[in-house]
Task: structure prediction
Amino acid sequence: MALSLCTGCGTSRLGHYYADKDLQVRLDGSPSRNLLIHYFGCGGMAIQHGETLLMTDPFFSNFSLGSIALKTIVGGNIQPKPTNIEYGLSRLPAGIDMEDIKGVFISHAHYDHLLDVPWLFKYRWAAAPPKVYGSGTAAFILSQFDLPPGRMVNVEPFMAGPHQDGQWIKINPGVRVLPIKSHHAPHFLGIKLYAGENQSKFRKKPGSFKSKLNHWREGQTLAYLFEFSDGDSVFNLFVQTSASKIPMGLPTADVLKGRQVDLAVLCVASYNNVKGYPDHHLEQLRPKGTIFVHWEDFFRGYRKSKLRTVPGTNVKRFVEQVDKIYDGTFWLPAPGVTFDINY
Ligand SMILES: [Zn+2]
Result:
C-alpha cells in the first residue's frame, strides 16, 4: 500500500492520459483477436482472453487515511466492505462473470491487494473456487480464513529474477505465467510499512473476516508475465502492481529476448521512492502500450465519482516523466474502465 501525509490532486492535471470511459485499443494494424482488461482500482483487474478469465489483486474496501494511520499505530481491525465489492463487481462488462475466474494473481500481501479475497471465496467463488497464486506469506494469511483446501499456490519456488530465468506455470493449454521476484517501494522517508513475513497465527472468530491491519504483511512481492497463446498468435502481458527498486521485478534478458511485450501494467504509487522507476522497466520491456494503475486515492470512498491522485505521489510529474521517455501509448484509467485490446 502507499501512504503519506500530503493530499492528492484532481484528475484534470493528468491531461488526455486519464481514461474515464471504456476504450477500444488497437495494438496491431490488422487485429484479429482481443483481450479485455477491466480495472477495479489499486492493483485490481479482471483479464479475459477467450474462455480464460483471470484476476489480479482484488480490492474494493477503501479505508480513510486517518483510520489506517490510527490502526497502524495503536492496532485495530479491518474487514472487507461488501457494499463496495458488490458495486465494483456490478461494473464488470456483460459477459464477464466472477464465478468463471480461474486464477487470481497476488502481488503482495498488504491489505490493499489481498483483504477482499476471503470474502470473494465465500460469496462469489463457493461453487467453483479459483486458484490463488502468490507468496508464501499470502498463502499463510489466507489459510487463516476458511478457504477451500488446495486453492493457494505459493509461486516463490518458480520465480524468475534478474539472474534466474524462473519456471513458467501452466494455467491451461492457452495460458502460462512467469512469476517474477520483485520489490516494494518504501511508503515515505525510506520507511516501508507492514514489511516482512507473517507466519504467526492470528486469532479470528470462525466465519469472521475481521483481522488486524498489521497482520497483512508484505511477504515476497511479485510481478507476473502472462503469455496468452491462440493458434499462431501470442500475446505477452506484463503486470507489476507495486513500484520496485530496479532491476527487481524484471525477468532476465534471456526471457525477454525475441519476445514482444504487447501490454504492460505498471504501478504509479510511491514511484518517487525508488530510483529509475518506471523508466528502466519501460526501456527493458518496450511494451506497445502501458496501463498505469494504483494511481488514484484509495483512502477515499470507493464509490466517489470525482477521483483524486494517491497522496504522497506526484502523479502529474509521473505522467510528464513517462511522456518524455516512452514512445508507446499509455493510460491512467478510472476504476470501472474496461480496455478492449485488439491485436
Ligand atoms: Zn503494498
